[in-house]
Design brief:
With 172 residues, the chain is α+β, with helices and mostly antiparallel strands. The chain is built from five helices and seven strands; from the N terminus they run βαββββββαααα. It has one domain: Alpha-D-Glucose-1,6-Bisphosphate, Chain A, domain 4, CATH 3.30.530.
Length: 172
């Protein structure tokens, strides 16, 4: 089992960050390996993740528990890549938020195992969290006609060139 821990500072309130983090369908806007997240119609805490990992399509089903009062989100996979984790939000003195993520997952196959050993998956998640911070912080830019997707991925971002960017090394 591989273990990941990351923190990111976000210039937004805990409520704003929690709200954005629990809009799962928007994850493809800032997570490079996520193609689509579908919320189950009958069980809203069940998420169906459509991923592209090293260009290989994967589906993972997770059960999520979001607790606004505790400012945390927990998940555990029920199908696909075995993984579980917790995101905890903490208000900082300046009113901004610290997002802390702890996750464990079981790499499947040779490529994922090598990627985990080399820290590539941890780097990808760190990059995703950085893009999430930018996504949340730029939410006010929408009123000025700028999209968080454009701010995070660069001008000219489209679903087709997002795929190209996913295949390009580097997560910064």
């Amino acid at each position: 089992m591989a273990h990941i821990e990351h923190q990111v500072h976000i210039s937004a309130t805990v409520d704003q960050v929690f709200e954005a983090f629990t809009r799962y369908a928007e994850y493809p806007d800032f997570m490079k390996s996520v193609d689509q997240v579908l919320v189950d119609d009958t069980e809203p805490d069940l998420l169906h993740w459509h991923l592209s990992i090293a260009t290989v399509p994967r589906i993972v089903v997770t059960r999520v528990r979001a607790d606004r009062a505790a400012q945390r989100v927990e998940w555990r996979s029920e199908k696909g890549i075995e993984n579980y984790g917790t995101v905890t939000l903490r208000t900082l003195d300046d009113g901004s938020t610290e997002l802390s993520m702890v996750a464990d997952y079981e790499p499947e196959g040779f490529l994922e195992s090598v990627g985990a050993e080399l820290g590539l998956i941890s780097q990808r998640i760190e990059g995703d969290l950085g893009r999430f911070a930018t996504y949340v912080e730029s939410a006010g830019d929408q009123a000025e006609g700028r999209s968080p997707v454009t701010e995070v991925l660069g001008s000219g971002a489209t679903p087709s060139n997002r795929l190209t960017e996913r295949l390009t090394p580097g997560d910064s």
